[in-house]
Protein: Lysine transporter LysE
Amino acid sequence: MNAHAIELVAKAFLAGFIVAVPVGAIGAMCLRRAFAGRLSDALVTGFGAAVADALWAAAAILGLSLITRYVVEHDGPARVIGGLALIAVGAKMIHARRRQLVPLAAEVAAPAVYRWRAWCRDAATGFGLTIINPATFIGFIAVCAGLGLFVSNLDTLMSKWFIVFGAFAGSMLWWVILSLTASAVRHRIPLQALAMLNAGLGIVVAVLGVVSLLSAFGA
Structure:
């Protein structure tokens, strides 16, 4: 890998990290799962979001205008679907706010089939709620432009894929940091306070869903 490729990956890595940092619905879900002792679920949720971020980066860099135009033109239905999903997830998080903390070893002890189903569901949630959000694409456009990625020498397809890989790695690093931090401090939080925190995270997710619905209907 030459110096130019390393520069592209580094800039894309920074772009992916910056776009992922704002704690929205996915961040709240990762925190909730990590606080509940479900570290692997939190990481897999972040993985799904990072894959979606990488696809949006590919759309921005590779010039997939048909895909991006379709998503932007159908922004309303996407916001409705996403809003309803967020409200449902938020309500579930609030309802399960007092779920007892379990040791991380319990994740390993769970049946393999159950774990794989849970991971697939979590990854799909992270991916789906990120990929239907055009704001992620707009964020990548703004950050990549600010970092000079659009004026870099992208004369080869490999150079563009370096950027996509960097965006995924940067986004995934944020979800790893967020999940591991929450998992590390969860035992230091009293159970009552943790229940209130879980309810608060659920409220954040539900409110974001309501905001998405209102924006879809022009309110």
